[in-house]
Amino acid sequence: MTRERLYLFDTTLRDGALTTGVDFSLDDKMNIALMLDRLGVDYVEGGYPGANPLDTEFFTKKRTKRAKFCAFGMTKRAGRSIGNDPGVAGLLASDTDAIVYVAKSWDYHVHVALGCTLEENLECIAESVRAAIDSGREAMVDLEHFFDGYKANPDYALACAATTIRSGARWAVMCDTNGGTLPHEIERIVAEVARVIPGDRLAIHAHNDTGNAVANSLAAIRAGARQVQGTLNGLGERCGNANLVTLIPTLALKDEFAKAFEIGVTPEALKEITLVSRAFDELLNRSPNRHAPYVGASAFATKAGIHASALAKDPRTYEHVTPDSVGNKRAILVSDQAGRSNLLSELARLGVECDPADPRLNRLLETVKERESQGFAYEGADASFELLARAALGGVPDFFEVESFHVGVERKVVAPGVTYSASQAVVKIRIGDDGFISAAEGNGPVNALDLALRKDLGVYQKHIENLVLRDYRVRVFQGGTDAVTRVLIEFGDGDRDTWSTVGVSGNVIDASFQALVEGIVYRLVKLGVPAQ
Amino acid sequence: MTRERLYLFDTTLRDGALTTGVDFSLDDKMNIALMLDRLGVDYVEGGYPGANPLDTEFFTKKRTKRAKFCAFGMTKRAGRSIGNDPGVAGLLASDTDAIVYVAKSWDYHVHVALGCTLEENLECIAESVRAAIDSGREAMVDLEHFFDGYKANPDYALACAATTIRSGARWAVMCDTNGGTLPHEIERIVAEVARVIPGDRLAIHAHNDTGNAVANSLAAIRAGARQVQGTLNGLGERCGNANLVTLIPTLALKDEFAKAFEIGVTPEALKEITLVSRAFDELLNRSPNRHAPYVGASAFATKAGIHASALAKDPRTYEHVTPDSVGNKRAILVSDQAGRSNLLSELARLGVECDPADPRLNRLLETVKERESQGFAYEGADASFELLARAALGGVPDFFEVESFHVGVERKVVAPGVTYSASQAVVKIRIGDDGFISAAEGNGPVNALDLALRKDLGVYQKHIENLVLRDYRVRVFQGGTDAVTRVLIEFGDGDRDTWSTVGVSGNVIDASFQALVEGIVYRLVKLGVPAQ
């Protein structure tokens, strides 16, 4: 039986960017676009060219390989010719595959917010769509407040959708902009719309204001829509958009959807979705939601004693999908075997050779568990994990020993309105019989420590000359300043190689220093430098 | 029109207690039971008497006033008389209004996990229910894996439900134990069951493994179920249970449900639900989810400038319910993307009086934009924003001046394997003509600074005695340790009030110190303390 194609549209970089506290850099945006591209979504909406310099810069170049790269903006304004509308001009100037217009479809909003006639609004939609198509691009229109509009004036909401499609747009996007529509309403309205407009031209854009964004998306698909929009980890304004990380496994693994529809995410890519979700949180510098469907650290964890024996007998009866299908892990280890096999595949991935029967593996497993309970997280710190594994399985050379460090941060008012500020660090190390003491000043304590540590590493110095710190992240657990701090540092060699380390301590400086030292040691290990 | 009664059943203290990392004390349990009682739920499930000494102790006394207090446990075992089953005896000995039994309803599980016949399992249900009723209590039965069981053997799952009701139980609880059932399946199956058993005897117990716990609960109600189970903030094993804090507002405020059903939560109690949700997180010592439907700090926050001006015209067009109805607030984010209208509504929300024509508003907007471009983010730092606004519009008293601070962090190896580590801070301030210098040691540099700063603030000291640091977050921009660091600190007064400040600097210590100082200044401003 041939399955119908169901399209996935990601708006993390546009609607997701409206999330409180989220602030993407250009690098972030490029990374996220590639992450989505690899995952297999069909459309990546990159932002609003012209809204700010960053988005304009982002759209000077197509940022995806497979996925269609989309720019978002308003339809042309009423009472102005299409050639004379700077917003539309900005969209047409961007290097994209598709243009997403946003337009009012609730008659009340046309009057109140646009102050034009209902007919003029339809003309703006039609002309804007045609301009996109004439420029050789795919077009779609986000019909804002579609469901509220449909409830108030179904004919006008439908007219907006019909005009969109009649003008040649690929998709009419039904947006539940307020997020207040419930699943049964979505299902009824989409079914009614699909009687007039083919479902293959209808998209659903749901928000989570009643906790139903995922259910609303599924309801719309059941009622006929063939494109579903959402964001990574449900990012988005207010309560967020539909979470693609939840929707994709449901669409791929649950019979009713999997048998009916084909999506662009392959089974292999689906196994990466847990990693994608966590890497995205890492990039946002926030703790992954342990309880997230499919990908949360606790999604396959069982605490109930009464389930334990049945789980051991047959895990499938207590798991609605296999953790492996989404690249997640069963958190209660049914047997030592499971933990071991996870560990073995991780070592294989890193290229650390090891006999599966090696008894030191058990000790390594214990160590990893213990350190994770202290706050270490190796998912984002491959280099630290590899050092831990190599230390347990065969040794990492003792390149150098840190005897002490001291950092001072000072700030004082030296004259009215004039402030003196300094961060200074002293690091004392030992290489074999030789002692080295270095001092440095930085624009912060970690920078000062980094500079002092790398100022003179004796015989190793030449191997770390081109090492750069690419990213530095701090996360604090358990609230308050007296809590546990985890620092993740990403290093690069100025060329292509990057590696990440982790440090954990009650003290941010100490945690940072651990991660700095491991970054250097890892580099020396990978270069095969012998210890002095 | 008379509305049908819809019952709310809370299992925070039983199913919610299975959440990874959650560990209720007896005090916690008593507080939560009272919190739920005040909110107006109909049933409070307290735990599993006999499972551990704490739960046994908890059940020596009824812990609710209005709500029915329920104990949970297994139906009697096959091959053993009811009078000879210690589990049932424990339930009967507890001081409760109702007994909730859990029983298998999937034939496969009866065979594999219980090892008895299907008929014996039905007898266990019947006898256990009758024992509860004979003891003068209400009985209900949680039918484990009801939906998977129904798909595998509908007749047997139905027989379990029918036996439950025929034996006199008030409710047959259809549990989606794995959490893998989708809304359309729930709706179909419940509708089928409701043809055999009156809906007024059917309850729904949903889990969130596909992100549909809320939608599944609503679907079951639409199909006939008249009792809905869930937990505060969606606590629960794996991905959690249905979130009552999301469900209750939907049931109370959305026409289709509100017109059809009466629930025990009054409109006045509903206005407390935001507070209940946050107080519960407080008790769990975790940060509230800003994006939670209805009650999240961002649930009514708008960042898009195009929406903010329309919001100012008519908030109802952008809000699916009024924030006030659930005791939440409208927040309009001051950010790059927005403008003057955002700023004005934000000032109004914070209670900062201001003439819309005041020319100082433009300067304030410029300042906000400039500071945001430096890395400040006021979305998560109301207190810093209010201080900035008050300073621009009318002045904030000069309570004290920080003349200098110094922090030192030291770590050294004092003997093989023995490390000495210390963080010390000295803070020098001036209040009027008086100088104060304080020193403190902390488990990290920020902790040391915080302690030193708050050690002696002279005349202000008494106003900040109960101030606590509740959360501390660090974000680094543009990569590398020489980048810009943003620190967000959340303060509390140990009671209900919380406020957040932001600091930005190239130096994490400096950024933290700014946020610490602003947290204190804000407190003094809000208390109306005069400057010396």
Automatic annotation (TrEMBL), chains A, B:
Pathway where this protein functions: Amino-acid biosynthesis; L-isoleucine biosynthesis; 2-oxobutanoate from pyruvate: step 1/3
Keyword Manganese: no
Domain Pyruvate carboxyltransferase span(s) in chain numbering: 6-271
UniProt cross-references to InterPro entries, sorted A to Z: 2-isopropylmalate_synth_dimer (IPR013709), AIPM/Hcit_synth_CS (IPR002034), Aldolase_TIM (IPR013785), Citramal_synthase (IPR005675), LeuA/HCS_post-cat (IPR054691), LeuA_allosteric_dom_sf (IPR036230), PYR_CT (IPR000891)
Keyword tRNA processing belongs to the record: no
Higher taxonomy: Bacteria, Pseudomonadati, Pseudomonadota, Alphaproteobacteria, Hyphomicrobiales
Listed name of the protein: Citramalate synthase
Any one Pfam family match given in the protein's UniProt record, by short name: HCS_D2
Keywords: Amino-acid biosynthesis, Branched-chain amino acid biosynthesis, Isoleucine biosynthesis, Transferase
Gene3D superfamilies for this protein: 1.10.238.260, 3.30.160.270, Aldolase class I
Organism: Roseiarcus fermentans
